[in-house]
Amino acid sequence: MIVLGIETSCDETSAAVVKNGRQVLSNIIASQVDLHAPFGGVVPEIAARRHIECIGYIADEALSQSGVSLSDIDAYAVANGPGLAGALLVGLNYAKGLAFVNKKPLVGVHHIEGHVCANYLCEECVGDLEPPFLSLVVSGGHTLLLAVEDYDTYRVVGSTRDDAAGEAFDKVARVLGLPYPGGPEIDKIAREGSPTVVFPRAKIDGFDFSFSGLKTAVMQHIAREEKKEEKINIPDVAASFQKAVVDVLTERAISACENEGYKKIALAGGVACNVALRSTMQAACEEKNLQLFMPKPIYCTDNAAMIACRGYYRLLAGASDGLDLNAFPGRMV
Ligand code: KG4
Ligand code: ZN
Q1: Is residue 303 within 6 Å of ligand 1 at its C-beta?
Q2: Most buried residue, 57, 216, 233, 273, by most Cβ within 10 Å?
């Protein structure tokens, strides 16, 4: 089954062609980061208007790079939430148009479930991850521990009580005077420093997270240093903040996995690109004899291949949606 996926939930316009759920034939992504950078964050209306300008070209390019023709596409999968309403509607309507004209099934996809499915993707091979497993989803809008019981059953084991992990990276980067988006910048600059400042780790019962106190602690540290007229060591502060986030994510993911009795952990979402998180998780999983799966960075951030993959498994389970399918910006797992 060949599925064309569409993703426009935030600031990436993406289309992809995926064979049998796992083999990526093409995955085209147009990032809007330069458009939003001057505002220090994503401006919803600018995002939606840019998707309108790009989506036709991106879908054409995905088809042409895949080597298959429109008549070979068996179904259309589209992210219909969570995300920005105006942005989601662009991709949703484009996918509806394609499904209607070509008389093929349409399937709506939960964006976060799509992130998890990035772990199934590969280019030439057949990826070998199969449920059940524990997934740590860390993106700009979500921090979740999900028990992936089977291809269609996702159960929330833990989530953030306030800021998402990516949001914390972006806000702390701004405090440190680093450009938007801050996550990759902190990742880079932290490699030049050492985690010399011990920032607090929120202690919450169960498997939930909280990052807003950590953000405040970084701001208070900077204010204190400025008052003493000390030069702030940005790489050290970045490394210290990053270690605090990575330590908490790793500890919670491992204990949630053990609590569920699973042997596999899969990372997902933009923050899963983070080099320190990847290496810390790798070491912790080896120590605990757990198998760790991490998508290539290009499949961690928003992309349509993961949407096509999730759509494939919904279709396989007999699901499909009508032309009245709507966008659900605040959709929960
Ligand atoms: O999954 P994603 O592309 O979009 C959402 O669905 O939110 O995640 C974007 C988030 C941003 O907050 C960005 O700063 C963060 O992922 N991010 C990173 C890294 N690359 C992207 N955070 C830490 N380290 C990175 N290398
Ligand atoms: Zn995302």
Answers
A1: no
A2: 273
